[in-house]
Automatic annotation (TrEMBL):
The lineage of its organism: Bacteria, Bacillati, Actinomycetota, Actinomycetes, Kitasatosporales. InterPro entries: P-loop_NTPase (IPR027417), Stf3_sulfotransferase (IPR052736). Pfam families: Sulfotransfer_3. SUPFAM superfamilies: P-loop containing nucleoside triphosphate hydrolases. It comes from Yinghuangia aomiensis. This is Sulfotransferase. Gene3D superfamilies: P-loop containing nucleotide triphosphate hydrolases.
Length: 416
């Protein structure tokens, strides 16, 4: 471990960042300029129409913060240029696809199921278990990164799509650069993916603060209208659904939806919501470790205390609003599960969630879930070590901020 508590990077990454190896990549030193990036995306696709221009304001804020505050390494700048250009190319391709096939707008996204809850509360394992149900459609990493053209409904053609390798190279680079991300969260093209990646095309997404220290963009994001992000999210699902038989329910997941439940329900008024719960004191240590590692992929300047404080404030507000939302009775299609119950009896917990949402867990789906759990040994990719005490926060103050949430949802208090 380094002095900061983060793992040492692989030798090849240090060699590039130190200037000992010249990767001959102009993007490693090129400035982030909006017009240059837009022109590059146009040239690479041969297209010109990005659709609505409501993405330009957040893009400008993001680019300014990347230059002024993110303190990117050479590898980090190179990765970020590639990331931004992928988002812009896909905007062009989406706009072109909708023009050529306007009927895609008539695709109905019926009663989607959203898994929400603070990070590190069991959302990923619940999402993965729900993906085992043949009645569900869970977007894979490559679909959310590269949705155009729609994937083939033929399983063999779907599995052989050349975009899988392209997306996998982008997603696997996080562990390659950090040397330790897999022990916290595994990313891959054929794995279920958080659907906030679909909102990133609108440049209104928590994906950016997760990767970079971008304070002005983040402040804007937390107060902006998320309607355009959810509309883009819906467009991506409509494209991915095009040509597939009807009847399968979309199952989506992201802790970021906690902050924007009203926006989500305006776009998907018939949505069903499954919320996972865990003591926020434990969550803060775990999620801050994850975010620090993601930022370590891009920057040498990673501040645990600032990351921890940001998430304490974010989730104190989000979880209070969740209490208000639940107490108001605004949504009857919402169920809750405790992280401790997932550890003790995962299938019983999932079964109870199905029943609470008026859904049927078929025996074949339950058996597939059982098989998935049996093939997923704990700590397969290493041990994730984290502690609230790493954050330099006042434990008593932070603990008190979550008392109302713990009481309302009967969340067990962390033992340490």
């Amino acid at each position: 471990m380094t002095a900061s508590g983060l793992p040492p990077r692989p030798d090849w990454v240090r060699a590039v960042n130190d200037g000992r190896v010249d990767p001959l990549v102009e993007d490693a030193v090129a400035p982030f300029r909006r017009d240059t990036l837009l022109d590059q995306a146009r040239v690479q696709t041969g297209l010109a129409d990005f659709g609505a221009d409501d993405f330009l304001e957040p893009l400008d804020l993001l680019l300014a913060d990347l230059e002024a505050h993110a303190r990117l390494t050479r590898v980090g700048r190179w990765q970020t240029h590639r990331y931004l250009l992928r988002l812009l190319r896909q905007r062009l391709l989406v706009a072109e696809y909708v023009k050529r096939d306007p009927g895609v707008r008539d695709e109905r996204i019926e009663e989607p199921l959203f898994v929400v809850g603070a990070p590190r509360t069991g959302t990923s394992i619940l999402h993965a278990l729900l993906a085992q149900d043949p009645a569900h459609r869970v977007p894979e990493g490559w679909e959310l990164l590269l949705p155009v053209p729609p994937p083939s409904p033929d399983p063999e053609v779907f599995a052989a799509d050349p975009r899988i390798a392209v997306a996998d190279a982008e997603l696997r680079v996080f562990d390659r650069v950090s040397g330790a991300l897999d022990a916290i969260h595994v990313y891959g093209a054929r794995l279920p993916k958080e659907c906030l990646s679909a909102q990133s095309f609108a440049f209104r997404s928590q994906e950016f603060p997760a990767r970079y220290h971008v304070p002005n963009y983040t402040a804007w994001l937390l107060g902006c209208d998320m309607g355009p992000a959810y509309e883009y999210h819906k467009t991506v699902l409509q494209i991915l659904q095009r040509g597939f038989p009807r009847g399968r329910r979309w199952v989506l997941k992201s802790p970021a939806h906690l902050h924007t439940l009203p926006d989500l329900l305006r776009t998907y008024p018939d949505a069903r919501i499954a919320v996972t719960h865990r003591d926020p004191i434990t969550v803060l240590g775990s999620v801050s470790s994850l975010i620090a590692t993601l930022r370590w992929v891009h920057s040498d300047d990673v501040g645990f205390a600032a990351i921890g404080k940001y998430h304490e404030d974010l989730y104190a507000g989000d979880l209070d609003r969740l209490v208000d939302f639940d107490a108001s009775g605004q949504s009857t299609a919402m169920v809750h599960g405790q992280y401790a119950d997932f550890l003790r009896a995962p299938l019983d917990t999932v079964r109870a969630m199905y029943e609470g949402l008026g859904m049927t867990l078929a025996p074949a789906a339950e058996e597939r879930m059982r098989t998935y759990l049996a093939g997923r040994p704990k700590d397969k990719h290493g041990v994730h070590s984290y502690s609230f005490d790493d954050l330099g926060l006042d434990r008593a103050h932070a603990d008190a901020r979550f008392d109302r949430y713990r009481t309302h949802f009967a969340v067990p208090r962390a033992t340490q």
